[in-house]
């Protein structure tokens, strides 16, 4: 048996391998083997083509992504009209989340717990005792 490396080289290499046989039988065998290899070399080994692979490198560094690039605006909560100041009806007195301040006389509370004046006048604030 021949290896593929001896088949690939040429018919001359095949004839050298056949010379190991007796001289009387070698000559017809060499001509037969060389004609087979020359005709069917592409069938046995496949077409011999060279392919070139090109690699393209990045020209800019890949930038990482950040998860922190956002912020919300402030809610502007707190006391808007301090005690002793005059207010008009409907003026916002306190903007708050939850019921930190409770409403008293002539003061209403909105859906978002905003305290507003029901009548014009001056306001006062005081502490209530716990229940």
Topology, pairings included?
Elements: H1 4-9, H2 11-18, H3 23-39, H4 41-45, E1 78-79, E2 86-87, E3 92-95, E4 107-109, E5 115-117, E6 121-122
Antiparallel strand pairs: 1-3, 2-6, 3-5, 4-5
Explain what this protein looks like in three dimensions.
This protein has 131 residues and is an alpha+beta fold. The chain is built from four helices and six strands, in the order H-H-H-H-E-E-E-E-E-E. It has a four-stranded antiparallel sheet with strand order 1-3-5-4, with no helix packed on it. A two-stranded antiparallel ribbon has the order 2-6. Helix 2 packs antiparallel against helix 3. The longest helix is centred in the N-terminal third of the chain and has 17 residues. The N and C termini lie far apart (106 Å).
Sum this structure up briefly.
The chain has helices at 4-9, 11-18, 23-39, 41-45, and strands at 78-79, 86-87, 92-95, 107-109, 115-117, 121-122. It has 131 residues and is an alpha+beta fold.
Structural class: alpha+beta
Cα Rg? 50 Å
Number of strands: 6
Low-confidence blocks of residues: 1-8
Strand line-up across the major sheet: 1-3-5-4
Distance between the termini: 106 Å
Order of helices and strands: HHHHEEEEEE
> In percent, how helical is the residue content?
25-40%
User: Counting H and I runs of at least 4 residues, what is the number of helices?
Assistant: 4
Q: What percent strand?
A: 5-15%
Rounded mean pLDDT is 77
User: What general form does the structure show?
Assistant: rod-shaped
Instruction: Profile the largest sheet.
Output: 4 strands, antiparallel
């Amino acid at each position: 048996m021949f290896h593929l490396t001896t088949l690939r080289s040429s018919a001359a290499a095949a004839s050298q391998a056949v010379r190991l046989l007796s001289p009387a039988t070698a000559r017809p065998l060499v001509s037969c083997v060389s004609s087979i290899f020359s005709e069917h070399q592409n069938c046995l080994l496949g077409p011999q083509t060279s392919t070139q692979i090109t690699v393209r490198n990045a020209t800019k560094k890949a930038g990482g992504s950040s998860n922190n690039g956002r912020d919300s605006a402030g809610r502007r909560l707190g006391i808007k009209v301090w005690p002793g100041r005059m207010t008009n009806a409907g003026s916002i007195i306190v903007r708050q989340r939850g019921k930190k301040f409770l409403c008293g006389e002539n003061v209403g509370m909105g859906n978002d717990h905003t305290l507003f004046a029901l009548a014009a006048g001056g306001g006062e604030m005081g502490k209530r005792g716990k229940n």
